[in-house]
Amino acid sequence: MSENGWHAICHDSDLNEGAMLPFELGEFQIAVYRVGSEVFATDNVCTHGMALLTDGFLDDDVVECPLHGGMFNVKTGKALCEPVECDVKVYETRLIDDMIEVLLR
Known about the structure:
CATH topology: Rieske Iron-sulfur Protein
Distance between the termini: 14 Å
Number of helices: 0
Largest sheet: 4 strands, antiparallel
Number of strands: 11
Structural class: mainly beta
Strand content: over 45%
Shape: globular
Order of helices and strands: EEEEEEEEEEE
């Protein structure tokens, strides 16, 4: 369900500390991450090799792409090492009544 661009994607309890989950919302492929007590969201497709980031590895606030080992900061989307040169898009998140929501514009 969408309210002003916000989409409820899962219950807060579905996303454990240090975990990431993939979601498809229309044409959007979204990755959602829990780092500490915070939830972050990015595009789930690597900007370098068309691999799903959620098939890779999450270490603190850095996700590593499974295809070529490129890394992104999940808080900022910043590309951190070769071969990735382009940042990954980040999305605003919020928690409403135990539901994690992502803002898609």
